[in-house]
Structures are given as C-alpha cells and as structure tokens.
Write a structure and sequence with these properties.
- Helix content is 68%, strand content 0%.
- It is mostly helical.
- It has one domain: Hemerythrin-like (Four Helix Bundle (Hemerythrin (Met), subunit A), Up-down Bundle), CATH 1.20.120.
- The longest helix is centred in the middle third of the chain and has 29 residues.
- The chain starts with 15 loop residues before the first helix and ends with a helix.
- The protein has 5 helices and no strands.
C-alpha cells in the first residue's frame, strides 16, 4: 500500500507561494490514495485529474514567471520540463474524458516520481536566485516586490 505524501521542509524552495503550490499538488495526489486499491471510480479519478491539470497549469506559470524575474538562467530548460509534464497530465485527462480506462496507480506513481525528482532536483536549482537579486534579474520587479516571492 502506498503511503500519503507528506510535505517536508527539505521540499521548500524558499517561496511561500511556490511552496504552497507544491503542497496543493501533493494534496491533489493524496486524493488518489483511496483509489489506488481499486476502491474508486472513473468519475473520482477524472475529478482528481481536472484538479491536477488546473494546479500544475497555475503553478508552472507562476514558477516560470518567478524564475524569469529572479534572473534564473536555466528557466527555459525548466519550462520545457513543465511543458512535458503538462502534456502528460493533459493527455491522461483527455483519455478520461473519452471514456478510456485509467489506472490510478499509474497516474499516482508517474506524477509522484516526477514531482519529487522535480522539486528536490530541478526546483532547488533556482532557490538561490529567489533568495537574493542577481545581476540578470528584472530590477523593476525586484523594486516593486522587494524580492521575488
């Protein structure tokens, strides 16, 4: 049996907003937990997929904006990872909408593994840029917001 995903301080990227988004995505994944043993139905799975799509779309957009404003030099490669993951979620949701059977375990494992690797690996790379202004940063954004996120 898969355990619930729990947020830990090691996942923090130093931004209340972005950390909050990560928590929302984790909460969404945790909604899949009761469905993993086949105790749910397609409607429940489709609902979780819809929420997941909305959350990742919001989060990816906000995170990409934060990286650009903070002067993070690899934001385009990071965005490419987001685009690929969004395509996966979008296609799974489209499958559900067209009546194709979905496997909650597959969805959970796929997003869980990607999310942990992404937060603990890729996202951590931009953390220093969010913490302090860099020469590449958008100065007007820093002045108006104090510091990025």
């Amino acid at each position: 049996m898969v355990t619930f995903i729990t947020w830990g301080s090691e996942m923090s990227v130093g931004s209340e907003l972005l950390d909050g988004h990560h928590r929302m995505i984790i909460d969404c994944l945790n909604q899949l937990h009761p469905l993993l043993d086949g105790n749910g139905n397609e409607a429940q799975l489709a609902k979780v997929l819809t929420q997941l799509e909305e959350f990742v779309l919001l989060h990816f957009s906000e995170e990409e904006q934060a990286m650009r404003h903070a002067g993070y030099p690899d934001w385009r490669a990071h965005k490419d990872q987001h685009d690929r993951m969004y395509d996966v979620v979008f296609n799974l949701k489209a499958d559900a909408e067209h009546g194709r059977a979905l496997d909650a375990r597959h969805l959970f494992d796929l997003v869980y593994n990607w999310l942990l690797d992404h937060i603990l690996g890729t996202d951590k790379q931009y953390q220093p840029f969010l913490a302090a202004p860099h020469p590449e940063a958008d100065d007007s954004w820093h002045r108006s917001n104090g510091r990025p996120y």
